[in-house]
Write a structure and sequence with these properties.
The chain is 22% helix and 38% strand. By secondary structure, the chain is of the alpha+beta class. Strand 1 and strand 2 form a beta hairpin. The relative contact order is 0.16.
Length: 182
């Protein structure tokens, strides 16, 4: 009786942990894709690969059409498609901490933790568009971009010219999103 109870307990624990494992495995970030969605695919191909996915069109802060692709219960990928709905995906971005690179870099990770995996922080650039910040590390894989918050740009004049660059990050600086593009 006790052995049978242990088997049931083990099975329950295994089945409880399974969705977390599959969600993380389903949302791996590579230079070619995120969560099974690949650069160069059409939306029709994504819908065939993920028949239960509820694909939705949204606009970003600049009014650019992005496609919301929920690749797992706790992971959403945003796709930009060339030439509207009929073109191919030319960039992907995720803000979901459940998505990670093969070496474990993920959104919400502190930049100090990223440096342990990808080497020292080379620079953070604040863009002209919406003053977004992007980080570059010494061993960062090609075509994988990090949008971050917490670059230390020091005191700036009111009439500063963008883009700004720094090699410093504030202590709480972190990854907001991970992007890949062709």
């Amino acid at each position: 009786m006790e052995l049978n109870m242990k088997k049931h307990l083990f099975a329950a624990l295994f089945l409880t942990a399974l969705p977390f494992h599959t969600a993380n495995a389903a949302c791996t970030i590579t230079p070619e894709g995120i969560g099974g969605v690949k650069l160069g695919q059409t939306l029709a191909q994504v819908k065939r690969a993920f028949p239960h996915m509820k694909v939705r069109s949204e606009s970003d802060a600049e009014g650019v059409e992005m496609w919301r692709l929920p690749v797992a219960p706790n992971a959403v990928v945003y796709a930009h498609v060339e030439e509207g709905r009929r073109g191919r995906i030319d960039s992907l971005e995720t803000f979901s901490a459940a998505c990670q690179t093969q070496d474990g870099v993920r959104p919400a990770m502190r930049l100090t933790q990223v440096a342990q995996k990808w080497g020292r922080l080379n620079n953070i650039t604040m863009s002209e568009i919406e003053m977004r910040q992007f980080a570059q590390f010494a061993r960062q894989p090609a075509r994988i971009g990090l949008r971050v918050e917490g670059g230390d740009f020091g005191t700036q004049e009111a009439d500063m010219e963008l883009p700004l660059n720094t090699s410093k990050a504030s202590p709480g600086a972190k990854v907001l999103s991970i992007q890949i593009a062709r």
